[in-house]
Design the sequence.
């Protein structure tokens, strides 16, 4: 379906060839019934949200919050405050951490690269603290947490509050699933040099922890394109996972939390990847230069100008036939001259089922200079006549 909406009664003539092409894209939204208590799934290339369940509720993130520790550390590497070959000391506090560790002790000096791989692959709580104390303005984990919270706000994480570097259970240590997906996207996009570490299935640091040498991400090695990012588990949070996978030109990022077992987490994560790639397909919904409307020009040397798509636009849409893709052109009518070719003067908004709207900028296909007194008089008369005609038709 195709609609036009303007500030004045629109021209009733529809662009039928465009209408037909829209109806070919008649597609439904395929829901996914997840067992997770909270979930968020997004297609990275188009930004299309495929699934959102309690996605903005701040929850205990467990070890998934280590991703923020890593993000701040990667930034420090980028600006030179850390070096990969730099060796850092291990404090008594870092050595005392329980849970998943690299079994570090106070006699160690560990390279930054080993610490980061130990966080990613081994989920080392002790490694997190070593990094935190090195980057903290006061040498404490609490000081590092303040840095993480500030950076979280700056990169758009709206429901995040962190009190430690490792994700160790704490009353106010919280992140939402949407925030974790946003953070995953930033890690993938901002730090392509380090992202391959997230796909490592094993890291045998110094031979110390043979029972803790393998990555807990259940998707790695399944040949489904999975290449990250971080699992998490506490009694309060349940079993959770921030994951990502690529197939073809597409990348899916997802976060699930509140699963009841390692097995359920693995099954749910694999099912989400399969669903996101099999049930949706990227389609071109607007070609650059396609005309979508003809708009009156006020006080111009020409009476009308065409609205065209500025660029090719792709959207991720469900594959099977079903609900219609609806397109609506929105513009102010008339547009006052002068107008430059390529000037944005309208927009085309697409809606498909429950998927987010896709907005396409519409621009003028030509330049229109200001007209003289006669052109302005004719334009005013034309608009007045159209208003009178519309009023008369409404009264019939």
Sequence:
């Amino acid at each position: 379906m195709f609609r036009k909406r303007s500030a004045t009664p629109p021209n009733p003539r529809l662009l039928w060839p465009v209408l037909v092409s829209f109806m070919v894209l008649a597609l439904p939204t395929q829901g996914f019934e997840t067992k997770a208590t909270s979930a968020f799934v997004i297609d990275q290339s188009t930004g299309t949200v495929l699934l959102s369940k309690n996605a903005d509720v701040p929850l205990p993130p467990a070890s998934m919050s280590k991703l923020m520790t890593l993000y701040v550390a990667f930034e420090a590497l980028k600006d030179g405050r850390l070096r990969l070959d730099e060796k850092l000391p291990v404090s008594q506090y870092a050595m005392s951490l329980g849970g998943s560790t690299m079994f570090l002790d106070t006699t160690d000096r560990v390279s930054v690269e080993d610490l980061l791989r130990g966080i990613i692959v081994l989920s080392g709580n002790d490694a997190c603290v070593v990094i935190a104390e090195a980057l903290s303005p006061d040498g404490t984990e609490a000081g590092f947490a303040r840095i993480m919270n500030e950076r979280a706000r700056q990169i758009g994480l709206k429901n995040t509050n962190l009190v430690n570097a490792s994700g160790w259970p704490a009353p106010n240590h919280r992140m939402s699933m949407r925030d974790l997906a946003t953070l995953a996207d930033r890690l993938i996009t901002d730090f392509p040099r380090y992202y391959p570490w997230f796909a490592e299935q094993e890291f045998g640091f110094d031979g110390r922890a043979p029972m803790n040498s393998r990555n807990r991400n259940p998707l790695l090695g399944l040949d489904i394109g999975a290449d990250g990012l971080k699992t998490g588990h506490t009694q309060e949070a349940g079993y959770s996972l921030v994951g990502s996978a690529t197939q073809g030109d597409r990348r899916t990022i997802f976060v699930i939390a509140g699963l009841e077992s390692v097995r359920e987490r693995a099954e749910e994560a694999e099912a989400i990847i399969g669903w996101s790639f099999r049930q949706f397909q990227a389609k071109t919904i607007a070609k650059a230069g396609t005309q979508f409307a003809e708009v009156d020009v006020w006080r111009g040397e020409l009476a009308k100008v065409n609205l065209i798509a500025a660029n090719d636009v792709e959207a991720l849409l469900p594959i099977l036939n079903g609900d219609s893709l609806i397109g609506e052109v929105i513009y102010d009518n008339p547009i006052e001259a002068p107008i430059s070719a390529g000037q944005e003067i309208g927009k085309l908004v697409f809606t498909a089922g429950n998927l987010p709207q896709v907005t396409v900028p519409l621009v003028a296909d030509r330049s229109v200079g200001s007209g003289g007194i006669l052109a302005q008089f004719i334009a005013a008369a034309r608009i007045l006549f159209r208003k009178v005609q519309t009023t008369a038709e409404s009264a019939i």
